[in-house]
Amino acid sequence: MEVILLERIAKLGQMGETVKVRDGFARNYLLPLGKALRANAANKTRFEAERSTLEARNLERKSEAQKVAEKLEGKSFIIVRSAGETGQLYGSVAARDVIEVLAAAGFNIGRNQVDLNHPIKSIGLHNVTLHLHSEVEIAVEVNVARSAEEAERQSKGESLTSADAIYGVDEDALKPEDFFNPEADFDGEEE
Question: Which keywords describe this protein according to UniProt (predicted)?
Answer without folding.
Answer: Ribonucleoprotein, Ribosomal protein
